[in-house]
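Data availability excerpt. The first of two example chains:
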Amino acid sequence: MDRNAALWLELELDRLSLRAQRPKQSLPWPTAEEIETVRMLGFVDPVTVRSIPGTHPTHYEILSGEKQWLTAQKAGLSRIAVLVRDSLDDHAVQRMQSLSTESVPLNPIQEAQRLQQRVQQGITVTDAGAALGYSRTAASHLLRLLRLESLVQQWIAEGTLSVGQAKVLVGLEPKRQLHLAHRIRHERLTVRQVEALMRQIRRDPRDPATIPFDADPRGPDHRWFEARLSEQLGVPVTVEYARDGAGRLILAFSDLEILDGLLERLGYCDDAD
């Protein structure tokens, strides 16, 4: 058999492991959306591996495709397709991994930490965000994530809690943050459901973990209108109607930086010197 030949197999996930000489860096955890997609489709792209000598049955170390392996675990798959490349020596593996790690995207918490480092150097949020390809509003939202509890930040980094789900937790006391974050993950609430739950919590002084979650009673057109406004303005929007046809438009912001970004979107200009 050609020493450079590769072999395709389908293996149980527990027969794969990370390399002992793997570069010291964060794991490329999948997002909640990626996990759900794999759960629906039932497969992920193949992983490149190399057999570990002296193991029976044979176990394999992952050379590339760590994210696929992690996603398969989170999605509840039991087996995964692999490409076995036993012909690769350590030098070739190191070269291959150096190429693959360059393209691994940062998770939201890492991006927020990059922004924070620039801001701590005296750069404004607007300029720091622009340097990394973010609008002022997006940069402010990322920085707010660093005010969450460390465990909540970990879930965001792992992809088991999305930025949209977590950003409404900023400003809550630590115990409430953890209770709600756990509930969001356990019940797999959507962003809109999380926002509706937060509105219930503001009206109910009980422990948030015990408040029953009621489906949003408003019609789909109403929810769509609020969602569109929220997307365009970059802040949570609530439209409330009174019986006489009057009502109010509520634009929520958590700090002055978010307010500044909102005013910019609305075209407000302070001409005072």
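And the second chain:
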Amino acid sequence: MAEQESELYAPVAAWFISANYAVMAEVKSCDVIAVRDGGLTVIELKLKPSLKLIYQLTARARCADYVYAALPFDAVKSTQRRQFLGLLRRLGIGLLWIRESRLGTTIKEALVAKPQPRGGPKDKRLRSAILKEFATRQSDQAVGGQVSIIPLVTAYRENVLITLALLEIHGECSPSKLRELGAPSTVGRILIDNHDHWFERKRRGIYAHTATSCESAHQKFPEAWQAALDRARQRE
């Protein structure tokens, strides 16, 4: 039986991919999202049912077209499965049972998710933010269900890393020069905000990276940092 929620991600992702969905993990507090034909499905990974899970599922339902819970089959006592399925059915939430055996991991769709009604303006903004993150993130190195102390590689993070990589390769640059080299259109704001303290202004309109920034990026985001360097070198 899985000991961490992140262990559930691979089989769930594979199940949706086999149904022609595009899948991404850890998007705007959602464990997993699956997108097909413009429709948004949100999946929450849990090791056992809880009231917190029900809260999360109903919150996701306000911004998604379909919502699923994915749990190990043995996580719910046999005497409680009927009640658990009945509750999810009334909420229109789908359910995926994950089973492990000597033959491997299998998934059974115990409940098919029902279309969810759209929420208010705040929920629509969250939906747009989720789909924007999905559309702009270059890689998916995050794993659904991972604990929050592990830094996530979001679309914004990728933009910060490519900016850092370009400064590492080309040296001091202005924001306009960085954009010419392939930095995002928001590079000016990235340099000014400087959330990771990786950048420094050398003089008016000219920026460089700090002495420890590249090592910091390598330690925190090794794969994403290497990918950013590779992308930057391709644009030389």
